[in-house]
Amino acid sequence: MRRGGDGATGMPAPNEAGGTPAPSLRPIVEGWRVQRRVIGALILRELHVRFGRRNLGYLWLFAEPLLLGLAISTVHALRDRGLGPRSTVSVFAFFAIGYSLYYMFRAIVGRSTGCLAGSRPLLYHRIVTPLDMVSARHLLEGAACTVVVILMSFAVAAVEGLVPDDPMKMLVAVLLMMWLCHGLALLVAAGAERWEIVDRLTHPLIYLQLPFSGVFFLVDWLPGPLQELALYNPTVHIFELLRDGQFGENVNTTYDLAYVVGFAMAFHFLGLCAMRAVRPHMLME
Question: What residues pair up with 11 in beta bridges, in sequence order?
């Protein structure tokens, strides 16, 4: 009995163009649908666990970075210093949007330390993986901070009349920060699951990194030797790109996107390897 194909061999019949038919994409599409449902369910769970349904509820996801950004930018604007005598840009605009983007780094990397420990019971569902749990939290934090950056841009435009010079560059900077933070947070989450010291050191290191991150300065304002040192930090390149999109020709910026992409890819590769290595230890506990 013939079971399809060409002749009795059962081989796939050639298509009209003379080649063999392409493999079905149905398993890939179905796998993507399942993955999307899992991530969506984990995001809803994260929202409910962290914010509940009382008081501000889910709005606190945006209110926290928004209030912090406004507070820091207002303090610097009232003091009217920190940008240097060569700067002609708005102090409020500089810090309001800059710190809103840094909050993404702080939220994604800082909160990744307890992500796996707090969600370990979910591993009893075979469809859920540690990578799903971490990714859901990072997507939530990244989306919230992106909305805050957009709101800050509208606020600066409304209050000071400063419209972003190139919004697409600002969007690319936000996406690069999310990508870089996600890869680094994978490493931190896996390390915190295995060693307690990673959890204890992560938060102090995040605050110690703040002065060198590029939030409070432009590379052009630094002395020559310090400029080279600052550019070793990939987040400095991201903030330089953000300022370029925000102020355009009003500031001199220096950045290398290939350098940032290289760091992000390296963090992701190492992070994925670390997440795969830590899962057996999670299942044994």
Answer: 6
Q: What's the CA gap between 110 and 65, in Å, rounded?
A: 14
This model's pTM is above 0.85: no
Residue 5: left (phi > 0), alpha (psi -120 to 50), or beta? left
Two structure tokens written together for 207: 């605050």
d(CA 108, CA 144): 11
Highest mean pLDDT among 23-27, 133-137, 152-156, 237-241: 237-241
pLDDT digits (tens, 9 = 90+) for 71-100: 877 777 776 654 554 456 778 888 888 888
DSSP state of 22: P
3-state secondary structure of 74: helix
Answer whether 148's CB lies under 8 Å from 103's CB.
yes
Kindly list the domain boundaries of the chain, sorted by start residue: 61-202+209-284
* pLDDT per residue as tens digits for the range 94-139: 888 888 899 999 889 988 887 777 666 777 777 777 888 888 888 8
**Which residue, among 73, 84, 282, has the nearest Cα to 162 in the 3D structure?**
73
Place of tokens 């969600």: 119
Is the C-alpha dihedral spanning 92, 154, 179, 275 positive or negative? positive
CA atoms within 13 A on the CB side of 73: 24
